[in-house]
Predict the 3D structure of the following.
Amino acid sequence: MIYLLAGPGPAGSGFIVKPNQAMSWRALMLVYLGIATVALAVGLSFYFNGLTLILPFSGLEILALGAALYVSAWRGGEQEVILIDDDRIVIERGRQAPVSRHVFQRAWVKVILERSWNCWYPSRLLLRSHGRQLEVGKFLNEQERQGFALELRNALKNNQASKN
């Protein structure tokens, strides 16, 4: 998901790039508790009917599902903030606060959509400058990545046009 940030004046702009989240944390916990309740009820019913090994496997199933949902929700909280001003591009990554920060000189940055050598692997959206490159929008789908590449190129052109 891509959000456009409009800064003060024509020179300041930016983007917030986040993965798509299907559910909020609360809704995810309610779904998990519902599935866990059903799995535990089935396991207990088999346990009381003499099939004792079903209950431990039911518990493992509940733990594995909980771990998978937690990792999915954790990764869904990532974001990239890309700020473009007169002379630089700042990319900050993190969840609620920036964990990493990368700065490029705006005049030298090239936006490159690099296709993979095999057709089933997604492309990579790269910002390159002075021998360094940084991949942005890793969690976007292919169509969003292509649109975002176009938006970044337009933002860089608009900033160059407003500077001249």
Q: What stands out?
A: Residues 2-21+77-163 form a domain with the PH-domain like fold (CATH 2.30.29).
